[in-house]
Design goal:
Layout (H helix, E strand, L loop, with lengths): L3 E5 L21 H5 L8 H6 L1 H11 L3 H4 L6 H17 L3 H23 L9 H13 L2 E4 L5 H10 L21 H4 L18 E3 L8 E3 H6 L10 E3 L2 E12 L16 E3 L11 E2 L2 E7 L12 H14 L4 E5 L8 H10 L7 E5 L4 H10 L6 E3 L2 H9 L1
Parallel strand pairs: 1-2, 1-10, 2-5, 3-7, 10-11, 11-12
Antiparallel strand pairs: 3-4, 6-7, 6-9, 8-9
Helix pairs in contact: 5-6, 7-8, 11-12
């Protein structure tokens, strides 16, 4: 168990900007951010999500032009879809269920696509790069609600390039597709991302330069050098690079793709999100393992997510120093409040730091942790970095 734990919400990512000055979105300003982008504001892209924008127009009376300017709560939208889908299913209205599934799919796809584009910009943010260096040097664990992989990119960069390249690795897989045992433990960075998530996947994309190479999870994790790290990144709501095979062929008209056989298996894969479509692998559609921002978050439905929450509870139950950044403990997310109340039943940290411009969060944190000492408050990452460096 780590002595220091960082807990992050979406607000922590605001220190990252793309070339156009756009920042990773919050649940309430997603469309305001995305629709400032020429890509997502293009006629072609808007045609891909027309069912979604029509749905929002129908119930919230907001046009695309208005979504560019005013806040819109994704949790409300996802929850509305969830409740309508449940009702339609109970009534046997299958066509309505399919329509709602497609609308939800469009929302998740554009959200995932937009978020995934910010990973490359972590290297242009001094504060985010420094945060990665601190977490890596402290051997701290991270509990996060964020789908994106910005933090992983910063930690990996902080670890540096791995100079121990196996002689078998030439940047290309061998003709027979076999990966040598020596290559199984090789990552082009010293910090090997698949070992940091605290859970095992049925299939793993090796973290190395060159053509994407995949190996069965059993083989990957059985390598003596591929033990799960003791200091982990626990992603409570899943991740954009965690997927599950659907068993649905993307090319059913082609005989070689008609009978995909990996339905239900998990895969760790830096998938390519493109124009509101889910990625596919070897012709089989894969969907992300994420908990969408609905009012009733069903964290028990996926085994990986369930295991992550159990590990987070154990980590919080023994941590001595807790840093909470960019998360405001919304009253609708009682799963998180339960996590804190249960982990604080017999233990409380010795030190708490809150990184948030909203100081009212301090009161909530103290109540949930039964913490009766002063809490150190920082407005943003930059202020925290300065404090750390003093």
């Amino acid at each position: 168990m780590a002595k220091t734990i960082y807990m992050f919400g979406a607000g922590i990512n605001r220190g990252v900007k793309d070339w156009h000055g756009l920042v990773p979105p919050l649940a309430t300003d997603f469309f305001q951010q995305a629709l400032k982008s020429d890509k997502y504001n293009s006629e072609h892209y808007l045609s891909r999500i027309k069912n979604l924008t029509a749905y929002i127009k129908r119930y919230w009376k907001l046009s695309v032009d208005e979504l560019r300017l005013v806040p819109f709560d994704l949790e409300s939208c996802y929850t509305m879809i969830q409740l309508q889908s449940l009702e339609a299913s109970l009534k046997g209205e299958n066509e309505k269920v399919i329509d709602l599934v497609n609308i939800e799919y469009q929302l998740t796809a554009i959200l995932a696509e937009f978020l995934s584009e910010f990973e490359h910009f972590t290297f242009t943010s001094d504060s985010f790069s420094n945060l990665g260096k601190i977490i890596y040097s402290e051997k701290a664990s991270v509990i996060t609600f964020n789908y994106d992989t910005l933090l992983e990119a910063s930690i990996g960069s902080a670890s540096g390039v791995n100079p121990n390249v196996p002689k078998e690795f030439k940047g290309l897989p061998p003709d027979n597709g076999e990966v040598s045992d020596a290559e199984l433990a090789y990552s082009h960075l010293k910090w090997n991302r698949p070992l940091a998530y605290g859970v095992k996947f049925d299939e793993v994309q090796l973290q190395r330069a060159g053509i994407s190479t995949f190996v069965p999870g059993d083989r990957f994790y059985s390598h003596p050098d591929n033990k799960i790290y003791p200091h982990q990144i626990l992603k409570l709501h899943g991740s954009l690079n965690w997927f599950v095979y659907t068993g649905i062929s993307k090319f059913p008209q082609l005989p070689e793709y008609r009978t995909p056989g990996k339905k239900g298996e998990s895969i760790l894969y830096s998938g390519s999100w493109w124009f509101a479509q889910y990625p596919d692998l070897n012709g089989e559609i894969i969907v992300p393992i994420i908990v969408t921002p609905v009012l009733n978050k069903e964290i028990q439905k996926n085994k990986i997510i369930q295991n992550i929450w159990e590990k987070a509870k154990k980590e919080l139950s023994s941590c001595e120093r807790l840093i909470i950044g960019g998360y405001s403990f919304p009253p609708t997310d009682f799963n998180t409040r339960r996590l804190f109340l249960e982990s604080s039943e017999t233990h409380r940290p010795k030190e708490i730091i809150v990184i948030n411009p909203d100081t009212s969060v301090i009161r909530i944190v103290k109540e949930l942790c039964h913490f009766d000492k002063p809490v150190l408050s920082c407005r943003d990452i930059e202020e925290f970095i300065k404090l750390y460096q003093e």
